[in-house]
Amino acid sequence: MKTRSGSCNSGSYDSIDEFSQDMERVFDSILGRTVGSVLRPGSSEKFVPALDVAETGDGFVVSMDLPGINPNEVKIEMHEGKLSISGSRKRSDSENTRLHRIERSYGSFHRVLGLPSEVDVAKIDASYEHGVLTVSLPKIEKQQPTKIQIRTSANLSTR
């Protein structure tokens, strides 16, 4: 999508894709997993892990459900105020396996989150426990005002 400056604004595409994934998740939760594959061709290869974003007084905490995923295969990046988390979950069945029902999602995922305030990138921390990825993003500390004394002829002579 072109902006007034003529450059491409990828943020709107991210929003549309995220909205599409949210709608797919709603239909899947109501009608079952088969709806997503009808609405989005190839969605059986797309995995959209659920996540929560919480704001505390001094930062943000993102929790993402990633059961069955090796945390070493998850990529986390912060760029221009957006947190990006990507990876994939692979099926482990063999060729000789005859599947009767598939409800779990597999494939690659890529989630991008815009955050409403500045984050101290150097202090971002990520941990993985019991299938949940937790990313802690501390806000940049606001600089406290510094009192500046005004020089007058009276305080110059007292030095």
Walk me through this protein's architecture.
By secondary structure, the chain is α+β, with helices and mostly antiparallel strands. The N terminus is likely disordered. The termini are far apart. The chain folds into two domains: 46 residues, no CATH class; 76 residues, Immunoglobulin-like. β3 and β4 form a beta hairpin. The strands form two sheets. Strands 1-2-7-6 form a four-stranded antiparallel beta sheet, with no helix packed on it. A three-stranded antiparallel beta sheet has the order 3-4-5, with no helix packed on it.
The CATH topology name of the largest domain reads Immunoglobulin-like
**Total number of domains:** 2
Strand order of the largest sheet: 1-2-7-6
Count of DSSP strands: 7
Rounded to an integer in angstroms, the radius of gyration calculated over CA atoms is 23 Å
| Terminus-to-terminus distance | 64 Å
Give the mean pLDDT: 79
Any key phrases for this structure?
disordered N terminus, alpha+beta, 4-stranded antiparallel beta sheet, 159 residues, 3-stranded antiparallel beta sheet, 2 domains, Immunoglobulin-like
Question: Care to give the gist of this entry?
Answer:
The protein has three helices and seven strands; from the N terminus they run ααβββββββα. The chain has helices at residues 10-31, 34-39, 153-157; strands spanning 51-56, 59-65, 75-79, 82-89, 107-114, 125-129, 132-138.
